Amino acid sequence: NAGVTQTPKFRVLKTGQSMTLLCAQDMNHEYMYWYRQDPGMGLRLIHYSVGEGTTAKGEVPDGYNVSRLKKQNFLLGLESAAPSQTSVYFCASSTDFTGELFFGEGSRLTVL
Amino acid sequence: EDKVVQSPLSLVVHEGDTVTLNCSYEVTNFRSLLWYKQEKKAPTFLFMLTSSGIEKKSGRLSSILDKKELFSILNITATQTGDSAVYLCATTSGTYKYIFGTGTRLKVLA
Lengths: 112, 110
What we know:
Radius of gyration of chain A: 13 Å
Number of strands of chain B: 11
Structural class of chain B: mainly beta
Number of strands of chain A: 11
Shape of chain A: globular
Strand content of chain A: over 45%
Largest sheet of chain A: 7 strands, mixed
Number of helices of chain A: 0
Oligomer: heterodimer
Distance between the termini of chain A: 35 Å
Shape of chain B: globular
C-alpha cells in the first residue's frame, strides 16, 4: 500500500543549483498535483496534470517545470533554485478532479 | 479567480470544549468541498461534501455545506489533545484544480 511516494524527503541546495523531485503513485490516478506549503500560506498549487503527457500551470508556477511522461510519475524540477523556493513540497493525486486527494509525505527543500 | 477563506486563523481551547471551524468560498462551477486534518506531515482526509444541508459525521467530527451562502463548517465536539492540528478546507470546480484555504490552527489544552 505505497499510495503516493515522494523522493527525496529532504534536500539542501545552494542558490542556482538544479534538482528534481519525483512523485510516484500506484493507484492508477489520472490527476496529479504539486503544491508548496509555507507558514501561514496554506497549500498553493504549482503545477498539475490531468493525464499522461499533460501539464498545466497552477497559482505559483514561476521557477518550476514539470513533466508527466508516465501516468504513475509526476516530476517537479527547479532549474535554478532561489531562497524563495525554500518550502515543503507535497505531491497529490486523485482518481477524478472532485474527490479525495491523496497526498505524499512531503519533501522539505532548503535553498541557501 | 477561485478563493477559499478559513476562519479563525487559530484557536486555543480546553479539552472537552466544542469548536466550529469556518470555510467560505467563491468558486466558479463548484463541484465539491473537502476537509483535511494536518498534523506534522501530510494532510489526512476527513470529509467530502457536495450537497447542501446533508451532514457528514465521523465520531466527534461533523461537517455541513451551505451552497446558497457558499460556506461550510466543521464541528468538533468534546475536543481532545489529539485534535490539535491544522484543519484545511479545499474546493474543486470544473478547472480540475483543488484550491485550499490557509487553514485553521487548533490547539487543545489538557
